[in-house]
Amino acid sequence: MTLALYGKRKKLVKIHRIENGVVYLTEEPLGSGMFYLPLVENGKNVEEFEILEQEQMSLLVGRR
Known about the structure:
two-stranded antiparallel ribbon; about 45% strand; single chain; mainly beta; five-stranded antiparallel β-sheet
């Protein structure tokens, strides 16, 4: 499972498809089954994704 903070408001999303550093499919909120296709232009995401490391994920999941 890959989690990331997405956009200016840093929403937590689950990444389902990422290739060469470009995110193509996300789920938000986690476990909802609602999938989104982020905008990609010239081989790059328009909005920024901050991929969370394993330590960061355990901190976020533990706070629920």
